[in-house]
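Action item from last week, closing it out:
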Amino acid sequence: MSFVDEPVDGIAILLWAADPDTPQRLATPFFHAAAAAAMEIPVEIYFTARSVQLLAPGVAAQLRASERHDKTVLESMREAVSQGVLFYACSDALDAHGLELTALIPECHGRGGAVQFMARAADRRWRTLVF
């Protein structure tokens, strides 16, 4: 069953304003990513700026979008990954926050930043979202 009339090659999501200091913004990107992946659309999430801190062990596990939200941000992230979503960490953001790629949560698939995201944005077969 197809959910769209004109299938796309994928959706690239840039996390920019979604950071640990604003947990109320953190569930939505992963919910949308999981939904698209469940529709069999490849999804890539690019963690940039302060959002890269969500990939550090222990950070997302302590956050909830609200007091009424029963899942942690890490659980929302893992749901997206379980649907096939790929997580990429911006090299410059890692450096800016003193993080090493090898020390990130296992759900991170590697480095990916401005060049990779802009390549997706320039590709007519891909759609992009920014949170």
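Closing note: The mean pLDDT is 95.
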